[in-house]
Amino acid sequence: MSINHELYINIVVCGIALGTLARFIYLRVDYRQYPTYPQGYMTHLTLGVISAALGAFSVPALIEKQYTAVTFLALAAQQFKEVREIERASLEKMEATELVPRGAAYIENIAKIFEARNYIAMAVATLTSLAVYLSKSVIIGTIVGGLAIYLSRYVMKIAYIRDIAEVLPSKIVFKGPLLCVEDVVLADIGLKEGREIIEKFGMAVIIRPKGLDSLISINNLGIRQAILHEAANQLGLKMNIDTPELAPLTMNNNENGDIIVVMVAMKPDIDAFVEIIKNVPAIETVRKYPSKSRGARKAVN
Amino acid sequence: MEVHVTGYIIAIVALRKAKDNVLSGTAPIIYVENEEEQQKISMYLSRIFKAAVHDLENGVFILVKQY
Known about the structure:
Structural class of chain A: alpha+beta
Low-confidence stretches of chain A: none
Order of helices and strands of chain A: HHHHHHEEEEHEHHEEHH
Mean pLDDT of chain B: 87
Number of domains of chain B: 1
Number of helices of chain A: 11
Distance between the termini of chain A: 63 Å
Oligomer: heterodimer
Strand content of chain B: 25-35%
Radius of gyration of chain A: 24 Å
Number of strands of chain B: 4
Low-confidence stretches of chain B: none
């Protein structure tokens, strides 16, 4: 079975266009994990076009019984794994320059999302070109592609801290040199100067998990590091490398499993602080679901 | 790969009247006369070594470097 030239062009162009569009949309969904600089856009868009092209060409290739084309898809998968490696390596290199590092868990999460986005571009392109081939209509192909992009949001959906926990503002209290929040000791601050700055500019919030799953997840050091990184990078820190006493802290309350976050920010706005923490991604790679285990359910009941 | 020692005491700043509370170890002990001087000296050392000052509430301050 062969395809006439015009249909062939329609299939491929339509597939590439919608696949690239999918990649482009995911470039701009969120400000945190995405390159905001032109070179970053360029790198990821180019790779997006390549993955869309691979997806789009796979349909006519299979129709023309060019089964070896499938091996190219395997090659593509290898290529996208490389994207993950690149993203991970570049973020890891930058860790040393961050006052509050992202942490391994957060980096892994970002890298995985980057990889997945290329697969989305490829899948959208394949679906679109298949639809164009079956219906012989560019318009129907575009509709199917648009639908695929819309549905891909469910695949790429990420949870945030606000979905798994409540975030409540709290107060810092000093008991002698001990920095306490709700009777939990977070640190011993020896310098009077440091204590004065913390009392003046310090903010504290309590992250109260909504259930067993979130209790275990939120206790993960990777998520806690991500929270510190996000808050520090959006509100600014008073801390410098020679004032480690002003470093942001997290501690768990061993009575009820709450997590306490303390930060000394340049702009001590507690509402903004709460809002930022609510919008930190609850890193999927380190989340645990003990409620699915029979043993853990017994412990809760 | 860089190797760091983490969480060690860099120096001890003790009031002279609390000298029974400290004994020589790996870290140098600096004796001071009053609490004001103790704050000042430990602040200087903290800035120099980028270490956090912890108050043990018995007249002894320790400077700990975490990383």
